[in-house]
Specification:
Layout lengths: L9 E4 L1 H11 L1 H20 L6 E5 L9 E9 L4 H67 L5 H16 L1 H19 L6 E4 L25 H11 L1 H22 L5 E10 L13 E10 L8 H47 L1
Parallel strand pairs: 1-4
Antiparallel strand pairs: 2-3, 3-5, 5-6
Helix pairs in contact: 1-3, 2-3, 3-4, 3-5, 3-7, 6-8, 7-8
Length: 350
């Protein structure tokens, strides 16, 4: 049992429950899961249609008598709304892949922290057992010395061995503390929580039941098959490829922005005429005005946005190519290491 300050919190864990708890309470995962909602809200924002505009003009004074009520409706051209929606949906997929990648990393970190804590607790127990044995050896040496069976030097030697074993206890305790803090942080619980590992023995080496034949390894697939499997299952590679998709959609959005939008306008004008003292009543006139308004791309054609989007795409493609090369290198190295280990193991079993 690891030595900790007295605390009210004790957590009994297996590796499976540790992973499940990290899935539910890890702060990084919880924050990343909220980003999914943000990305999904971005889809709703991208699909928004521009609102119409209502205008009412009522003059005051003798110079103007026209009353006007009009409505304007902006019309997006060039597929702007569709391009925005495609980009927003791609970003949702990108955020989901980022969440999956983070979840995979957290699972690995939990496994590593769990194994480190199990090993640290085992090392502490071994140190405590060594101390107990050395304490017994001191007692035995003192009894034999009192019986004139051994020299005083044997007692000193036993005490020296006990002091050496005692010096190893504090580092072992600190290692358990550090491993516990690391695992507690990953699990999203207070760092002073005492953790009892239910299946810790699986992570400790034992000489019991050892057999001469160490293992029989399964035959790995061909190198080309391994590379294909790696490229199909690596989340970091899928994320890099999704980034290329996002950049392609950004190019479409930037390109559609170069096409000017139009605004359709309709107005109703009512003019009762100017009434003056002694003059006959004015004749009321009305009119309907239809109009089209468009921004002229004279000073800003939108070409800079397209160039920036294409530059981002070039960076994403380079990163994707570099990651593919890294995957090939890692698969090659793993395959060679496996083959070398297989040869050595076959020789040992023979």
């Amino acid at each position: 049992m690891p030595v900790f300050a007295q605390t009210a919190r004790v957590s009994n864990l297996t590796l499976e429950t540790a992973i499940n708890q990290a899935e539910a309470n890890n702060p990084q995962l919880l924050a990343a899961q909220r980003s999914i909602s943000v990305a999904q809200a971005g889809v709703a924002v991208a699909g928004v249609i521009p609102n119409p505009r209502l205008a009412i003009d009522i003059p005051f004074g003798q110079a103007e008598t026209k009353r006007t009520i009009g409505i304007e409706q902006p019309i997006e051209l060039g597929g702007k709304r569709g391009a925005r929606l495609a980009l927003a949906n791609s970003q949702v997929q990108q955020v989901q892949l980022q969440l999956d990648s983070l979840r995979w990393q957290i699972h690995i970190q939990v496994r590593q922290a769990y194994a480190e804590l199990a090993i640290a607790q085992g090392a502490q127990q071994n140190t405590e057992q060594s101390l107990a044995i050395n304490k017994q050896l001191i007692d035995i040496a003192k009894m034999r010395f009192q019986a004139n069976d051994v020299a005083r030097a044997d007692v000193v030697q036993a005490e020296f061995a006990f002091a050496q074993a005692q010096q190893k206890l504090e580092p072992a305790i600190n290692r358990v503390r550090q491993a516990s803090i690391r695992l507690n942080t990953l699990l999203g619980q207070p760092t002073d929580t005492v953790i009892n590992l239910a299946d810790s023995e699986a992570f400790r080496f034992s000489g019991k039941d050892s057999q001469p034949g160490l293992a029989i390894l399964a035959k790995l697939p061909d190198l080309k098959v391994l590379k294909k499997l790696a490229k199909a299952s690596r989340l970091d590679l899928a994320l890099a490829q999704q980034q290329i998709q996002v950049n392609n959609e950004q190019i479409q959005v930037a390109g559609s922005a170069r096409i000017p939008d139009i605004t359709l306008a309709a107005s109703y004008v009512w003019d009762p005429g100017l009434s003056t003292d002694g003059a006959p009543p004015p004749t009321t006139t009305t009119a309907v005005i239809l109009g089209v308004r468009v921004d002229l791309p004279l000073f800003n054609s939108g070409g800079s946005g397209v160039r920036q989007a294409r530059a981002n795409l070039s960076v994403a493609e380079a990163q994707n190519a570099a990651l593919k090369s890294q995957v090939d290198s890692e698969v090659n190295g793993t395959k060679k290491s496996y083959n070398l280990y297989d040869v050595r193991l076959s020789s040992f079993n023979q």
